[in-house]
Amino acid sequence: MAGWTTRPGGRPVRGDSRRGYGEEKSVSGLNKGIRKIEMSLKWDPSPAGQPPTDLDIVAATYLASDPNGAPAYVVHFDSRSPDGTIYLNRDSKDGKGFGWDEVMTLELDRLDARYARVVVGVVIQQNPEHRTFVSVLNPGFRIREGYGVLAEDDFGGVLGATAATVGEFVRETADGWSFHPGVQGFEDDPATFTRIMGQVRQS
Fold this sequence. Notes:
Strand content: 35-45%
């Protein structure tokens, strides 16, 4: 894969949580004192004769000076963390792995103090055809610290979306990092999604 693909046709339209996007099935609320996170993603391969289904985990970091602006950097299959604190352990282009198809590790306790927020999401590649979560077979993700599950979902609340944020980590002055779960859908191509995934959205 050479890089992010884009949706053919007109200008991408951002998802709207008022139309069912933004629903979640988190198993926890706010969690504090988080240090090292594992984000896992899985889905089933496309049926025989159909193009492969390719999902990607994405993590975007934000500076303390601009926590809701443009990401300082984005980590995904084609882009690495400059300091090695966020990295992909496993990558899949077709969902044919055993167990979890993609796994990303976030070592938040080693992240430089200038970074105050990290948003994690999932994006569906749009080449060779347009796909939303409704056309992905058995997708699901899990976010955990050690053996403790912080959030888990099957994207059932954002079936019309092409991408979704699934939670965010915020640096707390006294308690390290806190986790805020929540699945929000977007209708953007991958490149646009990575630019806007951390923006504050109106409900």
